[in-house]
Structure formats: structure tokens, C-alpha cells
Amino acid sequence: MLADPDLPVRHASEYRRGPVGDRLRAPARRGAGPAWRASGPRPGRAGPDRRAATLGRVRLAAVLLCLLAVGACGPLGPTEAGGPATDPVALLTVLPSPGELRGEPAAPADAAALQEALTGAPDPELVERVELRAPRAAGVRSWTGPGGQELVAAVSVWDSHLLATGIGGDAAKFLIDHEPGGRAWTPSGLPGSRGARVDAPGRQERRLAFAIGPNAIYVRSRGPVPDDVVTTAMRRLIVTLEGEDQ
After folding, report:
1. According to the model, what pLDDT value does residue 79 have?
2. Cβ proximity of 235 and 190 under 8 Å
3. Same domain for 100 and 209?
4. What is the pTM assigned to this prediction?
5. How many whole angstroms separate alpha carbon 174 and alpha carbon 126?
6. 83 in a structural domain
7. Which domain holds residue 50?
8. Confidence band (pLDDT; 50, 70, 90) for 98?
9. Residues 131, 226 within the same domain
10. Would the pLDDT of 4 be above 90?
11. Which of 8, 13, 42, 246 is least enclosed, having the fewest CB within 10 Å?
């Protein structure tokens, strides 16, 4: 994240709540057991050892179901990655050069190059914030075209899904907070993305962010770059990254 939030502390037990878990954790009521327990196994019923073994298997099955449900829901909390890390430079190579836009191949990016890709201008203070959050890997690819067109795509890997989600979202929010005419932008074909745009005389910009696991995907444009060029680049990166997880 480019801002400085206090990360919430959440315990994994929050994700194991439910009727099965509640019943397993419920304390036994005194005096509520059946009278036949005191005189040995009831005819036709399993003895204490067999009942204990059965209960143990039920509890184990319930725990496994809870863990599977938690895994299917993604990260457990603010420190969880939520999935495998990608190779940012390799992922960026799937993008073609759209229309009249031309650029250089994808390259690894340090904190300064990543920050400039996110916001469009060098900012030493923001570089320090990026360095503080210590991206594990990053790559950037850019294109330029006639009429001042600029397209930039960045992929970065972080220690948690929370950081991956926040880094691009914060960069988009900067556009809303600091640019006249900046407003939120979520393309209809990209639910879950976080974006912003500016449409003003002589000033056009789009910023779009998405996160999968610890991987942050970010696409930014300036000038008369069509919206579908930005959304197509984002969609291609998402589909490719999701395919890596299969």
C-alpha cells in the first residue's frame, strides 16, 4: 500500500465459525448423560472405546472440511499470501503491442521504477513507502504512440494478498484525490478491479488495478488511449495469471 494503514489483526478461528464447529466446541452438560453409561455399554450400542474413536473421526472430518472451506475462500488474514507468486517479467510478455503503440520488452523493476510506473512521475517519498513494503519481485512494460499516447503495465509480488490489493488501489486513489476531475472507474467487464480515470481538456488518464494472491496487476494510460486497450491488457494478464494457478 502507498498509504500507512494499521493492519487489522485477525485470528484464523474467525474463519472456522459455523454450526459444526460450534457444536464440537460446546461444553458437555453435567448430569445430562444417559443413565446406562454408569452400568456399561447398552445392549446393541457401541462401547466407550468405539464411541470415542467414532467421535474422533467425526472431529477430524469437521476440521478438514473447515480447512478446505478456508482455503477455497483465499487468504486467512492480513499476512497470508493467498496463492502462488508469479514471475512478473514472464507474465508481462503475454501482452502484444496494441494498435500504433510501440515499446520495449518487459524488464525487472526496482522500487523507483515500480513507483514511477504506478503514478507516472518520480516521487522519492513514495519510493520510500514502496521500499518499506519490500516487493518480492516486480516487472514493468511500457508503450508510447502518436498524440501523446502512453500505456504502462506493471506486475509486482508482495508478502500478502492485502498488500497486493492495496498497492494498486492506492495508486488509483491518488488520481481521485489529487487530480481535478479524477473519479472512480470500474469497467463493467472487470468486476473486482479498482480503478480511476480523468477526462479533462488536454488531460486523459486511466489507472486500473487487480490482485490475485500476492500478485498485483496494474495498467495505466495517458493521452488518447482507448478504454478497451487498457481493459484488454488487464483482462489478458488476469486470465494468464489465473491459468498459472490451475
Report:
1. 78
2. yes
3. yes
4. 0.70
5. 11
6. no
7. 12-72
8. very high
9. yes
10. no
11. 246
